[in-house]
What we know:
Shape: elongated
Low-confidence stretches: none
Order of helices and strands: EEEEEEEEEEEEEEHEEEEEEEEEEH
Oligomer: single chain
Strand order of the largest sheet: 12-13-14-23-16-17-18-19
Helix content: under 10%
Number of strands: 24
Amino acid sequence: xxxxxxxxxxxxxxxxxxxxxxxxxxxxxxxxxxxxxxxxxxxxxxxxxxxxxxxxxxxxxxxxxxxxxxxxxxxxxxxxxxxxxxxxxxxxxxxxxxxxxxxxxxxxxxxxxxxxxxxxxxxxxxxxxxxxxxxxxxxxxxxxxxxxxxxxxxxxxxxxxxxxxxxxxxxxxxxxxxxxxxxxxxxxxxxxxxxxxxxxxxxxxxxxxxxxxxxxxxxxxxxxxxxxxxxxxxxxxxxxxxxxxxxxxxxxxxxxxxxxxxxxxxxxxxxxxxxxxxxxxxxxxxxxxxxxxxxxxxxxxxxxxxxxxxxxxxxxxxxxxxxxxxxxxxxxx
Length: 333
């Protein structure tokens, strides 16, 4: 039997006077849009989708992109002020028809390293200006006195806070286990990477493990224990990895680990000393929408959890030198 479904589609018409439209090739419908007698309350323009690069070089021109929409019933000129850290640096004007939506581009130039809070209308976006490799830090987490259930504040300035999760899971071997890990939501500064990265942390292994992920971004960027070795790779496990033997005093002692990807070369540092390197066939762009996790892996929720403590977890969108790693590894908290 034939059936008729009733549904609705929200829509908004802006242009005053007659508006013609149809649905599913139906006959034209005409709607008369009139100016409200009390006028239109609120703003005349809407700012949407404000974007810039998450890391920007000091003293170089950078693009700020946004969309502006005329939400009134008459054509008008939108006047848009742009701010960086509360200081107006530009005003843009654009003539828009009723309901018209237009992409706008402006330039700004950061003059000192640090956080840039860019604002257009009610929209804001963060960027970080850098001069040196260590300025390109996108994540800095210390556990301190925090406990499971707490939010861990990102000290990089980019607000990539993590959530410390404790939960009971059924594992791959069908056992039931209570696991702890810290998960970080996606953000441009954590996801939009290039061909270099440095990942470091202080770790305190509390048990011998044959396979455990210390920090990871899915199975794309990983620092892990595997088969009595400390392993680091970036760009996917199929690229190969830099593997170094675990020290004899690995368990029940604090150690600092650092993994560096610089194009085709991976390097692992253990307690501030270069422990090994490995060269892959080709450099890979390290951008990924997989989530960073401390103490586990988002792609393997039923295995590979690290048993121990982790603090001083830092990520840089740059390949740090040995001297820079020695500088950045201290203090532990």
